Amino acid sequence: MNTAKDIDEANRHRTMSAQMRWWLGGSGTIAFAILATAAMPLWLPEGSAGIDHIVFPIVLFPLTWAAAFFYVVLERSPKRCLLLMLGAIAMNGALIASAFVGGPA
Amino acid sequence: MTGLASILARAVTVAGQAGLRATDPKRRRMFGLPARRRGPLRWVARGAVWTPALGLIWIGDLAALVIWMGAATVSGWGIACLTPALLDRTKTRIAEWLPWGVLALSIAPRRPVEDIDARFAEMEARLTALEAIAKPNPDRSEFATAGS
Amino acid sequence: MIVLSQERTKRLVAVHGWSGTVLGLLLYAVVLTGAVAVFAHEIGSWSRGGDATRHGLPSTVHRHLEAHMGLVDPAYHAEVSIGTTDAGALRLSFQQPMTNPESGQIEDHAHVFHVDPVTGETLRHQEGFLRALRAGEAGAALERFLIDLHVRLYVPEPWGLFLTGVLGLAMMVAAISGVLMHRHLLRDLYTAPRGRGLLSDKRDRHVLAAAWGVPFSILLAFTGAFFSFALSLGLPVVAMVAFGGDQQALIETVIGNPEAVDPRPAPLASLDYVLHDSAERAGSQPRTVLIENTGTASSRLTVFHGATGGALTGTTHMFHGVSRAFLGEKPTLGTQPSAGSAAVSLMAPLHFGNFAGLASKTTWFALGLAMAFVIATGMQLWVRRRQESRLWQRFDRAVVITLWGLPIALLGAAVAFFLARPVGDPLWWTPVGFLVAGCGAITLGLSPRDPAARYRRVVALLCIGLPVLRHLTGGASWSEVLLLGQFEVLTIDLLLLISGSLLSLADAPRLFLRAGVLEPAE
């Protein structure tokens, strides 16, 4: 049987999850989209004209953001959502940092 | 080429959409129309909607294909919006506003309403019943005041 | 059919509702002005009293170009752009990059000549930064205002672009979440509202329009967000990582690195021959020509053609400026065909709908109106479900004011343009007219009575009044425009008169009732 304390705890947990999702869906996805756009030229193929790696990140920016946003909204587990988003942000950030350390491509 | 192919494609698609609208089972249920027997008409209508797109791809007219896509969504919406009541109302409005009323009425005959007296009687009965529910009962309110 | 858990559906409903409501009023403004801006050029032509019919560049280009080359400093021969003006004159623009002291950025400084294509007489000569020259064209005030309002809601750069970009993303979110949360989208494609005046009817109306419009809502929102973010955010971000922050280097790489200049003087090949050759290859008349390093051995001609033959994009040909040899087709980006160039070149036709003249423009206009309808009905639905709250009641009134106020303000901008054209500065007065009419509409909407009927009358009056005002303030008469084949003027005049009349007719029964001409229905 649930005690009042358990219910309180569950409510608090739910509110925290909702808040976390709200922050991730807002600033988290924007940060991810900007970092992913910046990092994409480092791993996308250049294509026949040598421009695809520059053009596609810019073209895909709205879709990159939308994909991240809907992932955050639809992901069942808030914990997994947080870990995956932070992981993706950190990975893209590391790629960009490595480019700066090694000099611009 | 774009112009002619585009117009033709849109016309065929509109006809197909009108067919789909007329045979749509959910729509027929909603507007109290009798259910249709399963037949080829729905498949013919589906074919009419999509064949123009295949035709435009076949002749390689990309511009006409994109126009067709846009136009098909707008025309589909317009056709789906046309309810039987709206069609009747539009016809009646045209008939009222056109100066040559006789001709207008002949092209837009009002749909005869069957058993109108019975329907009026039923509506009046329902109205009376609703009024009886909505009106505060003076006896009961007095009783409630006295009781409190 | 997409089945989602209750929890996920709840989140999607919240996302759908809030994305469409919080930004809904601005979204409606961007979408409606976008629908109108599809015809920005035609509206511009109408406001100027009709443009000359364009038949491509005249066959006398080379002669007129040579005659004007001597009039400017040879430094301006670095780039020569040749096109036609709205009035049908030949437009020669001699330009070179220079730092604009006002903006601190490198811009094209130009000598622009408008030349009579037959006699070669100089009709007009302007000197200045191209951007400022374009912005100062009084005849294009209405057209430019419409585009600016759609592109950046008249908010200064880059914030306006950020704002419209966010609105594009919000539109994408609303459309995609709508698809995900509506389980029977395909089955309900022909489910019309039953007209019982209930909330479910409002819902049906919104869902029906949204279900049909969803592919293009996503497409237009995506391409719109791309245009807003590409230069304001994407370019600097990519340049920061891939080019150490050098945006100019990125642009040069993407457009195609310029070849080394051979400064030895050499005569320019016959432009008339090159234009003829290019027209035969493209199957259409050239629209504009760009000549780089004019008069040198490394001179190059780039000839631009509009979309023809069922294509969505136009073609661009390159020729050697001295030997007139055909160098090949130039992709939109880069020097060779690529997937990136193809993707970017599709963005403009898919967003503007300008690839097949009136046929595509009319379709895009209708799609824009359908999207505006979806946004408007969505906001109304959201508000009606929360009618008990005073805050939402106020928002409901704000929705009504915006729905009607925006068309009134747009018509007000056109009124101000026509009034200012003969006596003042239409560039300043057009936005002022928009603001004044908008404030009037807000005031009208603040009264406690339902303002819809009054709004309808104002819109009808403005629609009927505009063609009359256009004529009274020096615009061409119908007989003149018919004689010159300027059908845009006639078409827009007629559309305004018909719209105004239809809106008046909607009010007519009530007016006749009041006047005692009609008997009230039993």
Describe this structure in words.
The complex is a heterotrimer of chains A (105), B (148) and C (522). Chain A has 105 residues and is mainly α. Chain A has helices at 4-43, 52-74, 78-101. In chain A, helix 1 (4-43) runs antiparallel to helix 2 (52-74) and helix 1 (4-43) packs parallel to helix 3 (78-101). The longest helix of chain A has 40 residues, at 4-43. By secondary structure, chain B is mostly helical. Helices cover 79% and strands 0% of the residues of chain B. Chain B is built from 8 helices and no strands. Chain B is elongated, with a radius of gyration of 25 Å. The termini of chain B are far apart. With 522 residues, chain C is α+β, with helices and mostly antiparallel strands. In chain C, helix 1 runs antiparallel to helix 7, helix 7 packs across helix 8 (199-242) and helix 8 packs across helix 12 (357-384). The longest helix of chain C is centred in the middle third of the chain and has 44 residues, at 199-242. Mean pLDDT of chain C is 88; it is low at 517-522.
Layout of strands and helices, then pairs:
The complex is a heterotrimer of chains A (105), B (148) and C (522).
Chain A: H1 4-43, H2 52-74, H3 78-101
Chain B: H1 2-23, H2 25-30, H3 41-59, H4 62-81, H5 84-97, H6 101-107, H7 116-134, H8 138-147
Helix pairs in contact in B: 1-3, 1-4, 3-4, 5-6
Chain C: H1 6-22, H2 24-37, H3 40-47, H4 61-69, E1 79-84, E2 90-99, E3 106-115, E4 122-129, H5 130-135, H6 141-152, H7 159-181, H8 199-242, H9 247-255, H10 271-282, E5 286-292, E6 300-305, E7 316-320, E8 326-329, H11 339-352, H12 357-384, H13 390-423, H14 426-445, H15 452-472, H16 478-484, H17 487-515
Helix pairs in contact in C: 1-7, 2-6, 2-12, 2-13, 3-6, 3-17, 7-8, 8-11, 8-12, 12-13, 13-14, 13-15, 15-17
Spatial extent as radius of gyration of chain B? 25 Å
Strand content of chain B: under 5%
Using DSSP, what is the number of strands of chain C?
8
Low-confidence stretches of chain B: 139-148
Shape of chain B: elongated
- What's the Cα radius of gyration of chain C? 26 Å
Helix percentage range of chain C: 55-70%
Order of helices and strands of chain B: HHHHHHHH
Largest interface: A-C, 37 and 47 residues
How would you classify the helix and strand content of chain C by structural class? Answer: alpha+beta
Number of strands of chain B: 0
The number of helical segments of chain B is 8
Biggest β-sheet strands, sense, barrel of chain B: none
Helices and strands of chain C, in N-to-C order? HHHHEEEEHHHHHHEEEEHHHHHHH
Summing up helix and strand content along with how strands pair, one would put the structural category of chain B as mainly alpha
